[in-house]
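sorry for the late reply, my laptop died twice this morning and i had to redo everyting from scratch. anyway the thing you sent over, i finally got around to it. pasting the sequence first so we're on the same page, its 279 residues, then the predicted structure underneath. double check i copied it right bc i was rushing
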Amino acid sequence: MALDGENIDPEVVSDFGAEWARFDQAGMGEAETQALFDRYFAVFPWERLPKNPVGFDLGCGSGRWARLAVQRVGTLHCIDPAEAALAVAREKLKDQPGAVFHHAGVGAIPLADGSMDFGYSLGVLHHVPDTAAGIKSCVAKLKPGAPMLLYLYYALDGKPWLFRAIWQASDLVRKVVSALPRPLKFAVCQLIAATVYWPLARLAGLLEKAGASVDNLPLSDYRHMSFYSMRTDALDRFGTRLEQRFTRVQIDAMMRAAGLGDIRFLEGPPFWCAVGFKA
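ok and here's the structure:
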C-alpha cells in the first residue's frame, strides 16, 4: 500500500524495507545490541515515566530497539512506512503483547494528539524530506511534560578539516552507489564494509590500545562493533538516496520550534542524540 503525503520518500522507504528484511539484526550478538541500546538511550529519562507508560517508536525498522524498549514500558506503538520492515518487527516482537504495529509515515502518525507518555525516533528523521516537520509531528502526539528522544546525523560539528574532506568524498560515493540497482548496490555496500569499515575500525582499535587518541579518525566509532554492524551500517549509509545532516545548534532549534524544552544532548557518540520535554 502506498503512503502518499506523509513526509516520506517512497524510494527511500522501499530501500530501507529491503535493508531490514535482509539485515533483521538476528546476526548481532545480544551484548552488542544491549550496549548500542544503552548508548542511544543514555540521556532518556526512564525514571520520569509514569507506571505502564504508553509511547511510540517512530521508524521502528526491524524492531531492534523496540524489542528492548517494550520490556520497560506498558505499550509501545511501532510505526514504520515500510511494510517489509514491519513484517520483520512483528516477527521479532511476536511474544511481546505490549507491542502494537502501524504502517504509516511520520506525517500521518495514527495516534491521538497529546496521548503519549514518551516517544523516540533513532536514525530516521534525517531520511525524510522535511526533518523539522517530522519532529513537530512526533511532538504533537506527546502529553505535556513527556520526553522525546531523537538521533539525527550530525554535520561533523567540531571535526577537523581533513575529517570533513574525507566525509565529503564519501558522500560523493554515496550519491553514486545509492542510485545503483538494488542487487548491485547491496554488493558494493558489502564491499565497502569489508575494505573500508573493517580495516579502519580495527586500526582505530589497535591505536587506542597503544594509547593514541582516535576520536578524529574516520569510522573509529566502529572499533568495538561487530562486522555485522558494519555491514548493516554501510548499507544504511551508502544505500540511501536521501540523507540530511544537522549541527547541534540546528537540532536544538528544530526541537524548540516543535515545542520541546529542557533539551539535553548526549556529550559523546553517536552524534547527535538529544532528549527534550514537551512544554
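Strands lie at 54-58, 75-80, 99-103, 118-122, 147-151, 260-265, 273-278.
thats about all i looked at so far, will dig more tmrw
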